[in-house]
Amino acid sequence: MATPAIRMFRKIDGLFCVYKPSGVHWKLVRDGIETNLLKGVNATPSQPLPKEVRFLALPAGEAEAPKGLTLSAASVPVLSKHTLVTGPEFQNIKVGVGHRLDASSSGVLVLAVGNGNKALNNLYKTRVTRDYTVEGEFGTATDDFSNTGRIVERSTYGHITKDKLERVLAMLQGANQKALLMYSNVDMRSQEAYEMAVRGLLGPDGKSLPILTGLRCIHFQPPNFTLEVQCLNETQKYLRKVVHEIGLELRSTAVCKGVRRTRDGPFTLQDALTRHHWKASDVIQAIGQYRPSKKKSKTPIKDSPLQELEESTTVNQMNSEREQQ
C-alpha cells in the first residue's frame, strides 16, 4: 500500500514552468524548487507505526499474576520504523530543466519531475519554437552586446526611423526563412513539405544554427526599442548579438538591455509560477494539464497532446502573420 508521501510524489510527477527572474542562475531556481518539493512531500502525515507482540515483565507485586508467571504478552509499536530513526521517506527529488536561461535573462523556464523528463524530451524533439521580448538601445556598443558590458563605441542614432528598422527586420527574417528551408531537408516542391508547413512542423532536421522564425518591432521610442522574436535553437547570447547586428545595419550601434522568454512551446507566462508559488501544492495544480501518460503507447510523437497544442499555437501565429501582412 502506497504511503501518503508516495501518493503526493505521484501528484508532482509531470511538467510545469516557473518564471525565472533576471540576475538569478537557473541552477539556484532548480535547487530551490527541489528543496521545496522535498519538504512538501516529507511533510505529509506519516502512517501509524506497525505493532509487534512482545513479552514484558510484570510489575513487581502484581497481585493478579498466577504463581510463577513473570511475563505477559503485549502489543507495542515498532520504534525502529519511526521517522526519527529511519529519517525522511524521500531523501532527494530530482527536477529536470528544459531550455535554460542565462543569469541575465528572465521568463518561462520549463521543469520536469519523474516521468515528466521523458515528456520533456519528446516535446523538444517536435522542434517547438520559443518567443522572446528583447529590449535594445541605440547609440552604444559593448564587448558582450549587453548594456552591462564594457563600452567600446558610441554613435549617433537620430537618423534611425521605425520604417528603416522594420526594413532591416524584414531582411533578417527573410534570410532566416531561407535557412529554415535549407536545414529542413525536405523537397519544397513535394506534398509532404506543403502538409508540414500547414501543420507548423517545417523545421530543421536535427541540430542547426539559431533560426529566427518571426521578428517584429512592438515598441519604438529612440534610443529605446523592443522586439518580439520567435526562434529555434537559440541562445540568449545570440539574441543579444542580433540586436548588435541590427544597429550595424542601421549605420549605428545598439546594445541589448534585456531578454525575456514569454513562451516555450505550449508554456506561456500565464502558466509560469512566480517565486512565492514554488511550493508542492502550487506545483501540483500547475502540472495537472501537462501530466505525461504512464501507459506505453506506440503513437508517434507528433500525435501527442503536447504536439497538438504546439501545432495549433504555430498555425495561429502563421494566420496572424498573414493578416498583418
Automatic annotation (TrEMBL):
Signal peptide positions (record): none
Pfam families: TruB_N
Cited SUPFAM superfamilies: Pseudouridine synthase
The Pseudouridine synthase II N-terminal domain, residue ranges: 91-236
GO biological process annotation, one example: RNA processing
Region entry Disordered, spans: 289-325
InterPro entries on file: PsdUridine_synth_cat_dom_sf, PsdUridine_synth_N, Trub2
Domain of life of the source: Eukaryota
Family under the similarity heading: Belongs to the pseudouridine synthase TruB family.
Protein name: Pseudouridine synthase II N-terminal domain-containing protein
Organism from which the protein derives: Eleginops maclovinus (Patagonian blennie)
Taxonomic lineage of the native organism: Eukaryota, Metazoa, Chordata, Craniata, Vertebrata
